[in-house]
């Protein structure tokens, strides 16, 4: 088993054992405040699986208030990831990766993309489930801002990564946002 596979398994096991009831509202509040300060027409999110941080309700609330115009969920179709406009009333069905996704809808290129992470390191390299969907998507699509979402206890100093892995702009956890490289120059950041 490779170092990355071993670490992936350990992080997933740790997250599956976590009680996130206190962490999720804190992360959701950080995301809400950030999106109130930094307006984006379109925000990509994810359908939470395997005890991932669920931000759907806070994002849908921001959409209903007109803060965000379009929310988009990923869909794997024909072995390719795309983001599809999503309304809470839309019917979802499992895509090629087995994750609930919109059945149909307008394809969207999100300005801001929230990305689920098993772990992330100080350089913004994330650890996912190993399918490479996000890395391939980010290498072929220019997204203004990519933000990993995860509990603080899964942030590490260094992760093993390959040449094709795409670093994210930032991550958000219960203690707030951490920016990588020049990403902080493009956003307004409010401190608690």
From TrEMBL:
Keyword Ligase part of the UniProt annotation: yes
InterPro entries with a match to the protein in the record: FTHF_cligase, FTHF_cligase-like_sf, NagB/RpiA_transferase-like
Entries under Gene3D superfamilies matching the protein: NagB/RpiA/CoA transferase-like (3.40.50.10420)
EC numbers: 6.3.3.2
Catalytic activity entry: (6S)-5-formyl-5,6,7,8-tetrahydrofolate + ATP = (6R)-5,10-methenyltetrahydrofolate + ADP + phosphate
A Pfam family recorded for this sequence: 5-FTHF_cyc-lig
Cofactor: Mg(2+)
PANTHER family according to UniProt: 5-FORMYLTETRAHYDROFOLATE CYCLO-LIGASE (PTHR23407:SF1), ATPASE INHIBITOR/5-FORMYLTETRAHYDROFOLATE CYCLO-LIGASE (PTHR23407)
Family: Belongs to the 5-formyltetrahydrofolate cyclo-ligase family.
Listed name of the protein: 5-formyltetrahydrofolate cyclo-ligase
Native source species: Parasutterella secunda
């Amino acid at each position: 088993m490779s170092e990355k596979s071993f670490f992936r398994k350990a992080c997933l096991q740790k997250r599956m054992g976590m009680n996130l009831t206190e962490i999720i509202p804190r992360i959701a509040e950080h995301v809400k405040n950030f999106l109130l300060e930094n307006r984006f027409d379109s925000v990509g999110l994810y359908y939470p699986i395997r005890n991932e941080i669920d931000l759907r309700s806070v994002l849908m609330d921001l959409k209903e208030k007109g803060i965000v115009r379009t929310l988009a969920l990923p869909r794997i179709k024909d072995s390719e990831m795309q983001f599809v406009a999503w309304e809470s009333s839309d019917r979802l069905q499992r895509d090629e990766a087995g994750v609930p996704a919109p059945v149909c809808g307008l394809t969207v290129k999100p300005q801001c993309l929230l990305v689920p992470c098993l772990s992330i390191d100080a350089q913004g390299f994330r650890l996912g489930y190993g399918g490479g969907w996000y890395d391939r998507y980010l290498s072929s699509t220019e997204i203004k801002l990519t933000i990993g979402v995860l509990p603080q206890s899964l942030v590490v100093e260094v992760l093993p990564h390959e040449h094709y892995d795409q670093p994210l702009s930032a991550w958000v956890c219960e203690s707030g946002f951490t920016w990588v490289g020049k990403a902080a120059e493009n956003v307004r950041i409010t401190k608690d």
